Amino acid sequence: MPPALSFLIVGAAVLGAIIGVVTYVTLLERKFAARMQSRIGPYYVGWPHGWLQPIADGIKLMMKEDVVPRLADRPVYNLAPIVFLIPCLLIFATLPFAPGLGVADLNIGILFFLAVSAMEIVGLFMGGWGSNNKYALLSVMRAVNQIISYDLPFVFAAMVPVLLTGSLKLSAIAAAQPDVLHWFVFYPVIGQLAFVAYIVAMLAAENRVPFDILEAESELVAGFRVEYSGMKFALIQLAEYAHVVATSFLGALLFLGAWGGPGAGSSPALGALYFLLKAMFVFLLVTWIRWSFVRIRVDQILAISWKLLLPATLVLLMATAVVVAWKGPVLG
Amino acid sequence: MDIESRQVLEMGYGGAERITMNMGPQHPSSHGVFRMILTLEGETVIAIDAVIGYLHRCHEKLAETLTYTQYPSIASKTDYVAAMTSELAYVRAAETIGKIDVPRRAQYLRVIAAELQRVASHCLWLGTWCLDMGGALGGGATVFLYCIREREDVLDLFESLTGARLLYGLHQVGGVRYDIPEGWEKKCRATVDKVDRRIDEFEEMLESNAFFMARTQGVGVASRELAQEVGISGPLLRGSGVGYDIRRAEPYSSYGDFDFKVPVETAGDCFARYRVRMVEFRESIKIVRQALDGLPEGPISSRPGVKSVGQVRVPKGEAYARVEGARGEVGCYLIADGGAKPYRMKWRGASFSNLAILPHIIPGHKVADVVAIMGSVDPVFGEVDR
Asked: Which of A125, B97, B206, B233 could form a disulfide with B329 if both were Cys (CB 3.0 to 4.6 A apart)?
């Protein structure tokens, strides 16, 4: 098989799997939130426990009327969901799901991930600007502030395992955590602090409550996507959830030992399953925070980032560098 | 802040750095149908214009066309979140003109209904307020659903008492229409005990949350002077340091028999209003327990039951009756001409007067605080527009 063809097949398989996982993550979140709120959640569409609900939602969104505001900037407005979705799916490309199972295990995997992940702001801004709506405009003004402020601590927090390992290659970072005791979240002090910083920055970068001021439906109705309907809305939702799932995977890889687990050494499929479960753990952690906090204000968000999180992660990074210089990197 | 904000109101809407943003009447957190025209400089609100009247239903004219037996059930539609309050204000006005006695058992039942209503109303307030701050896709929705669960329990009590869950028609001139059914007292005690425990949970969940504190403390400060000048009442006034409660200042319906505190906070911000209402929750539950303990035997009305709509005639005269509702002073001014219908009726809605504070305390805050302040005022637009 020519390498280009195998790339294509693996890529298509990963893309299909991602879209499937992302679709079902919405059901997971709804069920989890429902339990937190002493409800049942989706129940009637599909037995048991409404498992067809995400499919039904997708069909509903496909059949909805596609409304374009009369004064919208049409090319920008129409292009925005796609520009938003592409980086969110592209970041999965460098993620190894098990040893040797991934699209492209680049030497600069994490750099690629973080750089492409930060590009979502372009599509987001296009959507808000092209909608020609004041709520959307305010929302993207907030988005630019917030995402730029939180991408820095996010990157710094993600850099801690990189420094500890001494490699930008994601599979090397995973290999440096062979068993539970070597997971970076259990690395004394630095690991825990970095994990907390990662989760907080991830909440902000993904626009989850308490940092969801972009969407802020009690003030800005639906923020940047207020004018979107039907399939375009579905693409935006898909992109958001894909981004959350991708950063959950990254979190599981950086701090929770990726695919490591009993019996994973011999079976890549089992390893991939462990990895998925760990990523879902990170996702549910974020969801747990999301469904129990109130949203904070834009000035408070910026204050938290610039006055607290950014200096803290910088100091943490420097401390990590000192530790690595003293004890040498953790090699896989 | 108060004097400056009034000057801000006079400013025009021009200026290159400003945008005018419309919030409402169809908006997730307009608490009904309320339109705010905000003038923004970036995220900061510098002026607010309020437009009301989208829910106007001619209540005062309607009262002239309905008899004293018919209107109490309609009166509950002014403030549909705390329907018992306006019923009580109306029948008290008619009773004052007609010098009609109310049996003590009826007075106690009125107190029980009013205080349970306050609990139910505050439940909805806490839930929607957190929904405003926390979002329908976040922690706010969680608090909202918890609060609705508690409110449902109280509404179940009302349902078994009156047969209705929202608009009750419990009160009639001379007493109440329904006596408590068998087993209701036990159910009521169990419910208030449960709500009492849950309030602790709410407090713990919210007050140990730094983000909740950051969103409420120091936000929307109404000074004591401003509060009195604008004429707000209820928990808002008490949150601004004025210990005024009609139940205490002018006891009606044998409120003098009960031992309860009137909570006062001096900060005047959203958090102070929250604290006042949280204490009121508990005080209301205390009053309900006392009223159930001391519930006297006897008739529930000094007048016979309703046989025809024109049965109650009130002599010529006029009176203003006021009660302390969940949102503040609810007053009813009634002019009777000796017939079965009033000649003229005027409502003093607590939400209407409380809403007047918004243009004084909102300018200078961020857009996100607009909904937080608005939620802390707790308006019900049925009562604002009537």
From this structure: B233
